[in-house]
């Protein structure tokens, strides 16, 4: 792993309004992710793990502090540039795969490339390559409803990696899978991490998955503890 920071945050704070009070969710979090590094974030339900991921992705904005992606402060760029940075530098995998039901696996994986203005021929080639790497070469024309839960999550992982991002944010990626399928997804993530030197930030309740990361943070009372 080289010493190349792909994503970092400094002194992040985030609160939400509940009636007359502000509920502090994130309290002064700072950390950096190096190229190829695998980080797990654990914590109880409602502790703010998904909020932190949304802040790191620039989907939500902090009340205070900064997030740096591609060397740029996400708060200091336009919404158009922020979206372009996300498309180029970040991939996303969620507990619910969020595949578009009317499109095939291949078309779903092509989407980030087409949004990034890659031509259809090149997008199709790269999507096919990724689907082959995740073991779905024979399923590329199937729509999500025709795939198992594990297969759908593999499509989502291929979609997250097809733009060759520096970092992938994963929110409970195996939360809806049985243990055997979850284990196969764990191994797939490790293999892809080694092959592409892509960084992973994984929010999970799965202790087995967390144990296979380079380091684990626990989010407690708005702060990250190692």
CATH architecture: 3-Layer(aba) Sandwich
How far the N terminus sits from the C terminus, by CA atoms, comes to: 20 Å
Query: What is the total tally of β strands?
Result: 10
In the CATH scheme, the class would be Alpha Beta
Low-confidence stretches: none
Please tell me about this protein's structure.
With 226 residues, the chain is α/β, with parallel strands linked by helices. The protein has one domain (5-225): Rossmann fold (3-Layer(aba) Sandwich), CATH 3.40.50. It contains 7 helices and 10 strands. The chain has helices spanning 49-56, 79-89, 105-115, 120-133, 149-161, 179-196, 207-211; strands at 5-18, 21-34, 38-42, 64-69, 72-73, 90-94, 167-171, 199-203, 215-220, 223-225. The strands form 2 sheets. Strands 6-7-8-3-9-10 form a 6-stranded mixed β-sheet. Strands 2-1-4-5 form a 4-stranded antiparallel β-sheet. Helix 6 (179-196) links the parallel strand 7 (167-171) and strand 8.
Concise account of the structure shown:
The chain has 226 residues and is an alpha/beta fold. The protein has 7 helices and 10 strands.
Lay out the secondary structure.
Blueprint: E1 5-18, E2 21-34, E3 38-42, H1 49-56, E4 64-69, E5 72-73, H2 79-89, E6 90-94, H3 105-115, H4 120-133, H5 149-161, E7 167-171, H6 179-196, E8 199-203, H7 207-211, E9 215-220, E10 223-225
Parallel strand pairs: 3-8, 3-9, 6-7, 7-8
Antiparallel strand pairs: 1-2, 1-4, 4-5, 9-10
Helix pairs in contact: 3-4, 3-5, 4-5, 5-6
């Amino acid at each position: 792993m080289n010493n190349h920071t792909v994503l970092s945050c400094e002194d992040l704070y985030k609160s939400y309004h509940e009636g007359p009070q502000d509920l502090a969710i994130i309290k002064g979090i700072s950390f950096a992710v190096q190229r190829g590094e695998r980080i797990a974030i654990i914590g109880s339900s409602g502790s703010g793990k998904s909020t932190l991921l949304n802040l790191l992705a620039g989907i939500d904005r902090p009340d205070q502090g900064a997030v740096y992606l591609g060397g740029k402060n996400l708060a200091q760029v336009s919404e158009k540039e922020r979206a372009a940075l996300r498309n180029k530098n970040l991939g996303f995998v969620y507990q619910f795969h969020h595949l578009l039901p009317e499109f095939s696996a291949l078309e779903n994986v092509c989407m980030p490339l087409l949004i990034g203005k890659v031509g259809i021929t090149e997008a199709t080639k790269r999507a096919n390559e990724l689907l082959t790497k995740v073991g779905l070469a024979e399923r590329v024309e199937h729509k999500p409803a025709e795939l198992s839960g594990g297969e759908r999550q593999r499509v989502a992982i291929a979609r997250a990696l097809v733009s060759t991002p520096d970092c992938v944010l994963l929110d409970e990626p195996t939360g809806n899978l049985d243990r055997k399928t979850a284990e196969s997804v764990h191994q797939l993530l490790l293999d892809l991490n080694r092959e592409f030197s892509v960084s992973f930030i994984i929010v999970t309740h799965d202790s087995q998955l967390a144990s296979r990361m380079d380091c684990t943070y626990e989010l407690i009372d708005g702060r990250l503890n190692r």
